[in-house]
Amino acid sequence: MKYWSLPAEKTLEQLGANVDRGLSASQVAVRLAEHGPNEYQQAKPESVVSMVLRQLRDVANLILLLAAGLSFALAVREGHGYVEPVVILAVIVMNVVLAVTQERGAERALDALRDLNSPTCLLLRDGARVEVETAEVVPGDVVLLKTGDLVPADARLVEATGLAADESALTGESEPAEKDASALAEADAPIGDRTNMVFSGCLVTAGNGVAVVTATGMATEMGRIAAFLNDAQKIQTPLQRRLARVVHGVSAVAVLAAVALLATGLQQGEEFWAMMLAAVSLAVAAVPETLQLIVTLTLTRGVHNMVERHALIRRLPAVETLGSTSVICSDKTGTLTQNRMSVRRIWVSGEKPLEVGESAPGGRALELLRRLALASNATVEPDGEGGEKIVGDATETAILRLLTAGGETREELEAALPRVGEVPFSSARKMMTSVHELPQGGYLVLTKGAFDRLPFSPASEAERAKRQAAHDAFAHDALRVIALGSRVVEDLPESGNLEELERDLAFEGIVGLIDPPRPEAAEAIALARRAGVRTVMITGDHAATAGAIARQIGLIGPGGTVVTGRQLAGMSDEELVENVRAYSVYARVSPEDKIRIVEAWQEQGEVVAMTGDGVNDAPALKAADVGVAMGVGGTEVAKAAADMVLTDDNFATIVSAVREGRNVFSNIKRTVYFLLACNLSEILIMLGAQIVGWGTPLTPVMLLLINVLGDGIPGLNLARDRSDERIMARRPIGRNESFFSGITRAIAQQTVAFAVVGLLAFWLGTFAWLPGGEGPSLAAGQTMCFLVVALTSVLHVFTVRSRGSVFRRTVRDNLPLVWSAVGVVVAFSALVLVEPVGAIFGLAPIGPFSWACALGLSVVPTLVAEVFKLWDNRHETWLYRRRLVHHENRGEE
Ligand code: ADP
Ligand code: MG
C-alpha cells in the first residue's frame, strides 16, 4: 500500500488503527502472528561443516595432520600398532571440537548482547503509553516519536511538530529530512519525497510526532536493503589480529626448529622416518594451539563481566580500548550526580529567597511554580500498580512533584491556559518556551531555562545586580538554577517561527534545584586518578554550580578553575591543545564543544572515553576512542553512536569497565607468558637432547598429551582470572603496548628453567642408576621427562597468575583453575602408575626414588620464579607506595 498518497484518516481506517487508543492487546497478538516480529533477517550463520573445515586449515592442525599421516605410514611399515596415529587424530578432533564449540559460544554471547542492546519505542496501546521493544511493533500500532528516538518501523505521520529525521541510510541525503503530517505525496514518489512518512531505522533529529505503523520487519524500506546492512560483528578485534601474528611467529620458529632437529638427527645416523616423525611432533609441540582460543574466551568473559557491572559493550574492540583509556570526559547531570533533583529554593523578585522542603509553597512562589510547570513537558502517568508516577526530564519532574504535593495538577492549569505551541529545549539553547492562549484573548509566552541565556527586557542597574546576586548565591550552593521569563503578545508571528517570541521577557523569578553527587562518584574519581586516568567534567550547567559539585567530588581543589563555553569559544584549537591538561571542569558547554575537547586530548596522545546522551552528542561519541552512551536517560541516537552503553548511567561504571579492560589485557598477557614458556622450553628440550646425542626425550604422543591436556585445560581456566587491586595502580596500557612488555625476561627465565629440569630428568632416567628402580633406560628417561615437563607446566599456571608470590594468592578466587590443575596432575600420575595404560603411551613404571627426583625437579622452576618475583616486588611495591603518596599530596591535578 502506498500510504504516503492517502490522507491520514484513510491510512488509519485501512490499517484498522485508532490514534487515541492504539491497538488492543488481542489485536496485537493477531497481527504479531500474521506479520512476525519486527526484525530484519540475519545473515545465515556459518554452518558447522564450514567452521570445521576452517579449523582444519589452521597451521597447528595442518601440522598435526601431517604428523598423523607420517605416524600411520610408520606404523604400517614397522607393524607396531596404531596407538600413535590414533592419539594424534584424537587430538585433532579434540582441537577442532574445542575451537568450534568455543567459537559458537562466543558468537552466542555476542548475540545475547545484541538482544540486551535492543532498542525500545513508545507506543499507544489500550489507551496507555507503553514502552516496548522494537521487535514487538506491529502494523497499525500508534508510535509516539520525539527527538532522539529511533523510528521502530515504517509509519505514516498523523501529527508532527518540527519533526525531522536523518534518512541518510536510505536516501544518501545527509541533511535531516523535514516532515509534514498533512502533506500528500504522489504514489510513485521516491523515498526522499514522502514527507508524511517516517522509516524504520532512521533517527529523529528534531521535534515530535505521532505516526501509525504501516510496515514492519523485512517489509520496511530498510528491510529491503537489510542484506547490505548486515552488521553481524566479526569477532576479530585488533588484539586478536596482533595475537595471530604472535602465533604465526612462534609457528615459524617451531618449523625451523623441526628442520634443525631433522638435520642433526640424520647427521647422527638416525633412521629417516623416525627422525621425520620426531621433527613433526616437535613442530606440534611448539605451536601454541590453544592460545587464540584462550584469547577469544578471555574477551567474551570480559564482555560478560562488564555486562554484570552495568556496561554493555556494543563493539568488541572497545573492551581493549577501555584498558588503554587515560582520560574520561563525563557529563555531570545524572552521571556524576544522581539526577534525583528536587526544588530547594525559590526566589521571586522583591521577596526574600524561600527555602522549600517537601510541601508546596504559597503566595508568589506558588505562582512561579505553576508557570514553570506550564512550561514543562513532564507528565503524571499511571505506574501500572494503581499509583501514579511523574515521568520526564529530572529538572521538570522536580518542579511538577513539588506542585502536585500541593494538590494541583498540570491538567487543571492547562485547562485554564491551553498550550498552543512550544519551542523545545535543547542543550545548545539551554531554554524552552511554551505559548498559551489567554481567556481574554492574546497569548502568554513562558520561557524557562538558564538565567544567563534568557533574553530579559532591559532593567535598572540595581535590579540586574539583585538578580545576579540571587543567582550566584544559589549556584555557589551547588544548586542548578532555572529562571522563568514571561511575556504577553497579541498575535503569534506570521512566519510560524515561535522562536521570534523569545525576547523582551519580564523576569519572574528563579528556582534552585539540588542534585546531589552520586555517593560513589568521589571514590571512583580517586580510583581513576590512582590508575593514571584523568576525569574531566563537562556540563551545560552554570560555572558556579558545576564548580561547587566538582569540589564536592574532589575533581578540583578549592581554587580550581572552571572553563566556560564562552572561554572555550575564544580559544583557538592550538591554545586548547596546549592547555587542555590544566582543565578538569567545563561549564555551559554545548555538545559541539565536546568534540573539540575530545580532539584536544587525543592531540595530546591520550585515549579518551566520552559520555553523552543527546542527539547532538553523537558526533563526539564517534570521535572519542570509547563513546559511552547513557542507557537510562540517553537517546537512541546516542546509543547507536556509542561503543558502550551504561545501563545505570553511573560514572563509577565507566571506571569498573576500565578495570575490566585492563583485566582482559593482563589475562591475555598471562596466557602468552604461560604458553610461550611451555612451548619454547619443549623446543629447547627436544633440540638440546638431540644435539648432544641423548636421543628423543619425548615421543610425539607424550608431547601432545602435555600440550593439549596439561597446558590446555588449566590454560582455558586462566581466562577466568581476576586481577588484584594493583591493576588500578598502574598506568593505562599503551595503545600499542606489546604482549611481551615487562614479561620478556620472565618468559626467558622460565623457559630456561623448564628446559634445564626437563633435560636433567631425561638424563637421570636414561643414563643414571637410581636406587629402587629397574635401572636406566630410554623409556625410564622419557617417563621422567614426561612427568617433569607436565608437572612444571601445571605449576607454571599458578606462577603466571600474579606478579605476587603464588603463596599469597588465595586459591579460592579461581576454583575451576585449581581443580583442573589437580585433575591433570592426578591423571598424569595415574598414567605412569597404572602400567598397562602407561604402556600404550610408551611410559614405563619408575621406582620411588625416581618419582622423588621427578617431583623435586618439578618444583624448581616455581621456586626460581618466586626468587625473581621477590626481587621485582620489592621494587614495585616501592613504586606503588610512592605513587599513592604522590597522589594524596596532589589532591588536585
Ligand atoms: P547538563 O545536562 O550538562 O547538566 P543541560 O544542557 O541539560 O546540562 O542544561 C543546561 C542548562 O539548561 C541548565 O543549567 C538549566 O538552566 C537549563 N535547563 C536544563 N533542563 C531544562 C529544562 N527541562 N527546561 C528548561 N531549562 C533547562
Ligand atoms: Mg541535561
TrEMBL record:
Transmembrane stretches, by residue range? 59-76, 82-100, 243-266, 272-299, 672-692, 698-719, 739-765, 777-798, 818-843, 849-871
Domain Cation-transporting P-type ATPase N-terminal: where?
Answer: 2-76
Per UniProt, subcellular location reads as: Cell membrane
Reactions it catalyzes: ATP + H2O = ADP + phosphate + H(+)
Q: Which Pfam family name is an example for this entry?
A: E1-E2_ATPase
Q: Its topology with respect to the membrane?
A: Multi-pass membrane protein
Q: Which UniProt keywords apply?
A: ATP-binding, Membrane, Nucleotide-binding, Translocase, Transmembrane, Transmembrane helix
Could you tell me the superkingdom of the organism this chain comes from? Bacteria
The entry's family comment says: Belongs to the cation transport ATPase (P-type) (TC 3.A.3) family. Type IIA subfamily.
Q: Which NCBIfam families match?
A: ATPase_P-type
Which named protein is this?
A: Cation-translocating P-type ATPase
Organism of origin: Thermophilibacter provencensis
Instruction: Please name the taxonomic classification of the source.
Output: Bacteria, Bacillati, Actinomycetota, Coriobacteriia, Coriobacteriales
